[in-house]
Sequence to fold (309 residues):
Amino acid sequence: MVYLKGKHILTGKQFTREEIEHVLQVAENFKEELKSRPSLDLTRGQILATLFFEPSTRTRLSFESAMLRLGGSVIGFAEASTSSTAKGESLEDTILTVCQYADVIAMRHPQIGSAERAARVATVPILNGGDGAGQHPTQALLDMLTIKTEKGTIDGLTVALVGDLKNGRTVHALVELLKHYRVNLIFVAPEELKMPLEITESLKSHGVPVKETESLPSALKESDVIYMTRVQKERFQDPQEYEKLKDAFILTRSLVDQAKPGLTIMHPLPRVTEIATDVDSYPGAAYFRQVKNGLYVRMALIALVLGKV
Fold:
């Protein structure tokens, strides 16, 4: 088994299938352990720093909760304006400073490649909580755990990814993990928000069947899992372009009722209008269970990079 002790978690591309399955197994073990007690005692005396230069609810709080559930402590900031970045400090100097205080760093930053920049100077593991429109590997791993938990398997499924595939760091990372499994992928997006060509071509060269469409109803009829994403206002230079595309795909209960039986619905959240609230009562609506899986996966990653499991 390949262990992750001391490693940075930067991109979905870095994982082998063996490593993915090891992370998921550790996460499942923690999920079981927390059923009988509120916290563990694996990281007592160790500190996680959460450096969030960009807004976050689920990622930041689940990282912090994960470290606390493992028995460790947390320091950090929730917006760049409260750090020395506001005074002009470079990302590299911020990382070099925080490495003096913490044993592991979870970071979100608006610039693509920022996590790799941080890793080049860091003396402790960096966990990428999202680098602009680049990658979000910890989200992708919790998505894999959700698919496995909801469907019992990952192999043999048809997975549709819907919405802002151009700017969606969650889907960019997720397909890098899914390519190690026997899956069919359907990309549902308007022309302006299509999955980047280099990602699509890379998947095809890896032997992954990929279909691209602008029809959500047709994708629903074929899919075992549908992964909705919001159109990301913060990634648009032109507000009018955002207004034109923001409601490109809306999943309603009537559409769900016409979908393939047993459909699992996922979303990295936050949602805006792309999933109607009356879908929440559908048994296959897994997006809030997906949130909970983020706790277990981030516990697993922290414990693994610190060499505790």
Observations:
- The chain has a mean pLDDT of 92.
- The radius of gyration is 19 Å.
- Strands lie at 47-52, 73-77, 104-109, 126-131, 158-162, 184-188, 210-213, 225-228, 264-266.
